[in-house]
Request: fold
Amino acid sequence: MPKSVLLIDDEVIVVEIARRKLHDAGYDVITAHDGEEALEELKKKIPDLILLDIQMPKMNGYTFILEKAKSPQYSSIPVVVLTAYSEMEPLFKRHEVKAYLLKPLNLQELVEKVQATIGQP
Reply:
């Protein structure tokens, strides 16, 4: 069974392009467009990794991280942040974010970061 990734981003084009690239690399990709939707997806299936945008409507990525941490069953899922704001790195480290990727995304770097974090599909 392939490893799964929950991809959370409000930019539809980013979600679709990244989903295809990860799917082609062999990962099962679940998508959500904000933190609230992502929490609902976690109830359906616990992924091996979460790829998380920070700037989103309804519930932003930072709030999602705080909500995820409240549940023991979700707190151990590694998170890789997708962001345009590299200056947020100290905040990411405080909340045990495994890594971050700067936008615009380099798709090969995205796949490599996923592989480095959870291994091959």
